[in-house]
Amino acid sequence: MSQANPRILLVEDTLSLAVVYRQSLLQAGYEVTMVHCGQDALAVLESQPIHLILLDLELPDMDGMEILKLVTEQQLPCAVVVITAHGSADTAVEAMRLGAFDFLTKPFDGKRLCATAHNALQHQQLSSLVAHYRENFERQSFAGFIGASMPMQAVYRIIESAAPSKATVFITGESGTGKEVCAEAIHQSSPRREGPFVALNCAAIPHDLMESEIFGHMKGAFTGAVSDRKGAASLADGGTLFLDEICEMDLELQSKLLRFIQTGSFQKVGSGKTETVDVRFVCATNRDPLVEVKAGRFREDLYYRLHVIPLTLPPLRERGEDILLLARELLQRYAKEEGRRFVDFTPETARVLLDYPWPGNVRELQNVIRNTVVLNDGERVEPSMLPPPLSGAPRAVAPLSEGPTASPVSAEPRPVRPLWIVEKEAIEHAIDECDGNIPKAAALLEISPSTIYRKKLAWEESGRA
């Protein structure tokens, strides 16, 4: 709030005193509105912004304390100084309890009045600045992120500043820090929020298919191209194209991507027709892009074209109390999904979570909390409920092919078996233990449910089911 010309509301029913007070305040450079009763004061507060109220408690139509209570309850952005001829310690204490900044007992001179008004206005301005700071720089969540730490406040401010433009944002950070969440936050905070958000993971697509994934292809362009297909560039027209793990892209395709970024034009694989789209680019990598440039794995000209607004996501271990903030949010969410009673962590568990280095960052924290909720129940999470290594000791695993009365495992060397068989037995055992619930089995195995579905499909197609 600007207080270049502070407005003061003077509520005083004695006209001679009101005129004297008003004259002193006008000479000090303040704008003064003078009223003689409570109802007129309330009308002024509804009709115009006021920075300071000088409030007489003995009014002809109401007790001035009622106005003070209203200002406090409605959190009006103004300070209140109570003035009265009937001063007492009890009255002063009550006024301060209700939110008054100061208390003046009549009679007082103009110098004392102006000094008190000056102090009250300075205090109110400082309070407004603190409130503004807390609202904008101490947020506990923002556009899909959860976190109140200073590193995350910096991330929020960069997103807010970068989102309205079309400039390319280059996100870096360790795996699991939330790079796609960040890209979506940029999109949702931008004027393109009504347009599409298309994410493409450059590390998850074979190199020989990447060009088709980005630009699309024509029917017959290559073996398996049975029909025309739009690529991510066309699908993102009018919106945002997010290229995750951009440093995994091969050099030949990097040159085509550079031309696309420069011109907004491209050709589908197998087509001679040039298409033009309006796309905002956001990219990300968990590597150091400059190291990749120096090693010759990433084009320098593409790096400088993309690296317009750099944004680095902090690892979870550098976010302090955000660990517990995130953990509690995840605990409540997963407990609701799984029908568990968990509401919080014991102090000992909270200390374990804070002391752990979280090499897998937020993604690892999600897996740990999901695992804990699925395999346990109670109101508060104990340290022993956490999976290894947080629990401090490996969790015993029953033999896959034997019942609960199986004899101890022999110390004799075991024959080496094909990896797919061991993997298949482990997954099937977990599914059986969870009564066929694949999401629970995935949490137990610390993998995603889609991995299990993909494995089962591969076994069926190969005849290994």
Automatic annotation (TrEMBL):
It comes from the Bacteria. One of its GO terms (biological process) is phosphorelay signal transduction system. Coiled coil: none annotated. Keywords: ATP-binding, DNA-binding, Nucleotide-binding, Phosphoprotein, Transcription, Transcription regulation, Two-component regulatory system. Residues 7-121 form the Response regulatory domain. GO terms for molecular function: ATP binding; sequence-specific DNA binding. SUPFAM superfamilies: CheY-like, Homeodomain-like, P-loop containing nucleoside triphosphate hydrolases. Residues 145-374 form the Sigma-54 factor interaction domain. The modification 4-aspartylphosphate is found at residue 56. The keyword ATP-binding applies. InterPro entries: AAA+_ATPase, AAA_lid_NorR, CheY-like_superfamily, Homeodomain-like_sf, HTH_Fis, P-loop_NTPase, Sig_transdc_resp-reg_receiver, Sigma_54_int. SMART domains: AAA, REC. PANTHER family: PTS-DEPENDENT DIHYDROXYACETONE KINASE OPERON REGULATORY PROTEIN-RELATED, TRANSCRIPTIONAL REGULATORY PROTEIN. This is Sigma-54-dependent Fis family transcriptional regulator. It comes from Aeromonas simiae.
